[in-house]
Inverse folding.
């Protein structure tokens, strides 16, 4: 299991009815992948630049894809990599989990041809993610908060993480803030455009 898989499974388990923005989730998943690559020695950080490391294959296809996407010199910043790798990543993880049988689609009897809401199946991966969540594992809980499906509680202080991991978590947080600013700007621009067409 990888942190990204645990994050995706957990988001569906603890907040099944709560909408999680795909953009935030994709950025958090990319951050989770990078943290696992750092932990495995497949990458290191030089300040905020990602330096590819050991290219030994992992047991996870998506993590191998993430490792293969790391760029040689000039090395990419963590922020740039999050935006590039994160594009559509939440949908990719959902598709892979469904293909592996770790989630299914719940269909309504009166709308049998509509694509149903994805629902987790009972699996060892789901139980491992539940255990990690119950243990309040710092990286998982911080990423969940950043992705928007876990509320920051008063006095909530996750355990310590290493400097490189802190750099990645901070970059994910910055990217999510930037994404929200872009959304707000587009909303304002669209409202102004609509106002012009209405003759306002």
């Amino acid at each position: 299991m990888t942190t990204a898989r645990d994050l995706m499974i957990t988001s569906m388990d603890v907040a099944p009815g709560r909408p999680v923005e795909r953009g935030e989730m994709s950025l958090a998943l990319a951050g989770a992948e990078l943290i696992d690559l750092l932990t495995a020695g497949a990458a290191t950080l030089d300040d905020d630049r990602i330096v590819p490391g050991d290219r030994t294959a992992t047991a996870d296809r998506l993590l191998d894809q993430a490792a293969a996407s790391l760029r040689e010199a000039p090395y990419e910043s963590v922020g740039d990599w999050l935006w590039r790798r994160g594009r559509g990543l939440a949908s990719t993880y959902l598709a892979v989990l469904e293909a592996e049988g770790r989630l299914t689609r719940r269909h309504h009897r009166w709308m049998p041809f509509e694509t149903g809401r994805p629902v987790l199946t009972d699996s060892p991966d789901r139980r491992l993610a539940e255990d990690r969540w119950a243990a309040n594992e710092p990286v998982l809980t911080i990423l969940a908060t950043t992705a928007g499906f876990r509320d920051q509680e008063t006095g909530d202080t996750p355990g310590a993480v290493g400097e490189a991991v802190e750099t990645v978590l901070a970059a994910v947080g910055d990217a999510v803030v930037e994404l929200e600013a872009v959304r707000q700007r587009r909303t304002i621009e669209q409202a102004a455009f609509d106002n012009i067409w209405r003759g306002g």
The helical segments are 3-14, 22-40, 61-68, 78-86, 89-99, 124-134, 138-147, 163-197.
